[in-house]
Amino acid sequence: MSPSAAAGPGLGLPDPERENALLVGIIEATSAGPALEPLAARVAELIVEATGTDVCFVHVLDDGGGALTLTGATPPFDGCAGKIRLPVGEGVSGWVASHRRPAVISAGKEADPRYRYFPELGGRSYTSMVSVPMESGACGLVGVLNVHTRSRRDFTERDVRLLVSIGRLVAGAVHQARLHRRLTAREQAAERFAEQVIAAQEAERRRLAGDIHDGITQRLVSLAYHLDAAADAVARRPGPGRDMAARELERARELTDLTLQEAHAALAGLRPPVLEDLGLADALASLARSIAQLPVSIAADTSRLPEHMEIALYRIAQEALQNVVKHSGAASAAVELRCDESRALLRVSDNGRGFDVGGRADDPASSTYGLRSMAERAELIGGRLTVTSRPGVGTIVTAAVPLAGDADTRLY
Q1: CA–CA separation, 290 vs 71, rounded Å?
Q2: What pLDDT was estimated at residue 232?
Q3: Rounded CA gap, 383 and 314, in Å?
Q4: At CA 45, angle to CA 43 and CA 46, rounded to 5?
Q5: Which has the closest alpha carbon to 395: 315, 313, 334?
Q6: Is 101 within the bounds of a domain?
Q7: How many domains does the chain have?
């Protein structure tokens, strides 16, 4: 016996037990999580079970309010979810969305001017249908619910009221799921943008590194050879001014060697190979060892982070340590990296002279150390940079970055 035949002439639930089961099922479905597609699919399944109809479609209004997308359906049409789109005002569902009123067709739906045939949804196999808006006073219209039966069904006012009530029950959950999907899409777009910006910055750094290596350093090496040759020539030719010329050549060679060392240091800073090869923890350790002016201790979690996040945190640590060397007068510094399921925390501290942040320790731009670029890097990956310092007690620069797994936590 088919479900529609078992249900009799109407959709009305035969006993309170089934009605309670429907209510509990809807509450469980709306509480299961913020994902829209599973919610719509479960609601469609519950409606068919409770009403004895043959198939249910859940159409959700898009963010612009101009079209409906089939988001949930019962088998055999569940594979069509996400593939059917209907402009508001077109078809029966579009008419319901436009007029905010139920539509009931007991027979002859192909003759109804509102009807639109979708081959994928097998409309000709179903005789009767009810279409109701999913809306509530708090969130407005969020979509349309449709039920269909193979055999003719003369739907009653109570049938329609039941479906309208179901629509109201799930409207709020669908609205929240849409907001969650929209926020997730924005977060993903922001993350892609951050990845692209950081990738562009690193590409420019690689280009500059290549220019320095292939241009400046090669010329400096060549200059060193010429200076050595000139020094040998001067040494072999005694005469007035030889000692002065030798001293000047020696000084020029010293400056050349110093400039070459600085070029190599700049190359290492522009493109640290250890970051690409071994990850952030080893790159921070290598960075700490490269600071010859003072001892830098390192305590870094070896957990791997997304590439663009590792690059940004490395650059923040790099710039913070450069500030320590240039400005703090510190005897030592420390770098700490801690990661858990919710966030990554990078802290660079020193025991230097410190400074007055003017009561705005969370505003790096207010400091005298030029930390704006570090704050911008942290913000680019969705994080926050804070600076804590007082004269005579040193400085702590902290970058806290939420991880992807914390997105849901931030929503609720």
Answers
A1: 56
A2: 78
A3: 14
A4: 65
A5: 334
A6: yes
A7: 2
Task: Give the CATH number, domain containing residue 377.
Answer: 3.30.565.10
How far is 373 from 98, CA to CA, in rounded Å? 50
Q: Is the pTM of this model over 0.70?
A: no
Q: Please, are residues 251 and 230 in contact by the beta-carbon 8 Å criterion?
A: no
128-132, 217-221, 352-356, 359-363: the lowest-pLDDT one: 359-363
Q: Provide the pLDDT confidence category of residue 313 given band limits of 50, 70 and 90.
A: very high
- The two counts, helices (H) then strands (E), for the chain are 12, 11
Strands (E), 235-392: 296-300, 333-339, 343-350, 384-389
For CA atoms 86, 91, 94, 96, the dihedral sign is negative
In whole angstroms, give the CA distance from residue 380 to residue 361.
20
Tokens 């522009």 — which residue?
A: 270
Identify any residues that bridge with 145 across adjacent strands, giving them in sequence order: 58, 132
Q: What is the C-alpha separation between 205 and 267, in angstroms, rounded?
A: 9
Q: Which contacts of 23-27 are long-range, i.e. CB under 8 A and separated by 24 or more positions?
A: 23/169, 25/49, 25/50, 26/166, 26/169, 26/170
Q: 386 has which bridge partners?
A: 398
- Strand 103-105 versus strand 85-87 pairing type: unpaired
User: Could you tell me if 92 and 146 are in contact, meaning their C-beta atoms sit under 8 angstroms apart?
Assistant: yes
Q: Are 309 and 344 in contact (CB under 8 A)?
A: yes
**C-alpha dihedral sign at 48, 51, 54, 56:** negative
* Domain end position, chosen among 189, 214, 241: 189
d(CA 408, CA 412): 7
**Which amino acid belongs to residue 259?**
T
